[in-house]
Amino acid sequence: MSSTESAAHELQDRAVLWSIGEIRAGDVVTAACDALVAGLDSPALRALAACTRAEADYDVPEILPSALDELGLAFYAVGSVAGQEAAARALAGQMLAGELTPPELAFRIHQRFGHELPLAERLAELDDEYDMLDYGGGRAPSEVDAEVTAEARRLAQQPRVSLEPMDAPI
């Protein structure tokens, strides 16, 4: 994967993690700066990268949709299933990159989506299994870690961009 492709994926992931409240708007601005450095460019991306940390909370919601659109990336509506699935894939990618441990991934998925997101349901169930380990139940922690890692790999292999329309009329 080229550095521009990698930067585009990172920006997409940061955008969707921001949309579910997992990261701050300033992290999206940092990803925009990294995207510019990697060679991506568009007027809205430049405007996004130019936001100060103080402005980010106000400006990111306004500028981000245009920046993603200009780069051919998806902007997911807050609360959409496609956005939740993209966020689950982004969190799985963080675990595979060593930014989260398997128990942290399972906990965050369970905390954000409960048992309501079919794509990540198994991770929510595995978070329940981690809770049972405290009571001497069942498997060894390493076995649960291995299954969480396998689920993270499965999620990471899912398509990154949904084929469903973003603003389809109901």
Main beta sheet strand tally, sense and closure: none
User: Share of helix among residues?
Assistant: 55-70%
Could you tell me the strand content as a percent range? under 5%
Q: Which radius of gyration do the C-alpha atoms yield?
A: 17 Å
Q: Indicate how many domains the architecture comprises.
A: 2
Mean pLDDT: 90
Q: What shape does the CA trace take?
A: elongated
N- and C-termini, Cα separation? 37 Å
Total count of strands: 0
Please work out how many helical segments DSSP would assign.
Answer: 8
Structural class: mainly alpha
Order of helices and strands: HHHHHHHH
The stretches of 5 or more residues where confidence is low (pLDDT under 50) are: 161-170
